[in-house]
Amino acid sequence: MTTILVTGATGTLGRLVTDRLRDAGHEVRALSRHAPQYAVDLIRGGTGLDSAVCGVDTIVHCATSPRGGDEKAARNLIAAARRAGVAHLIYISIVGVDRVPLGYYRTKRAVERLTEESGLGWTVLRATQFHDLPVQLFAVLSKLPVVLLPAGVADQPVAAAEVADRLAELAQGAPAGRVADMGGPEVRTLASLARSYLKATGRRRAVVNVPLAGRTYRAFRAGGHLTPERAVGMATFEQHLAQRFEGAGRG
């Protein structure tokens, strides 16, 4: 039996990874700022982090925040992992972090580099965005009478549960370096995804594509965040919507 630490263990992905590893018979330490046993702020580090990492064989690093601090958190985690002699560090990243000049993506790429240069055995998996991200986007945009979307941009959403399955598999294996990307089953225009969301939630809105400008928009329009050759996910966006909004009104 392996002792595995999961960071961000109270988040969407971290909870799923933790459950899968426990079901597989491993001793799993669930770490986050709000975890009942290993309540640690990675950005602050400290003795609580050292205690959480002590005796751990593998770390699955799921903790992240678009508000900032990921690089400092990774440095603290890696330093603690070195002191504890951790054998394997796994990091979940995003497809396109080296192609899309978005600030959050640059941070994810920086954490990839820290992982690669950590001196630990390491594995990095990049995945496309989870189904929940476009749902959250459309929930905000559909508050207006018209849903305005960036023209020419597609997405390839993947089920968080399927990414958790892959991370759990990697955590039970040897360090593998940068592994093959993981994308959802379909590359879809944002407009088609939005219409599916509106139908599932019973909302009537016009969907309008708006041309934008800038390097980040051009990179998204060019598909820098997509991996159509690695469309290995199985669950579709419509299946996610059906599960999440079952019983929603129509009209």
UniProtKB/TrEMBL annotation:
Q: Where is the NAD(P)-binding domain?
A: 8-169
Q: This protein's superkingdom?
A: Bacteria
Q: Which InterPro entries match?
A: Ergot_Alk_Oxidoreductase, NAD(P)-bd_dom, NAD(P)-bd_dom_sf
Signal peptide residue numbers: none
Q: What is this protein called?
A: NAD(P)H-binding protein
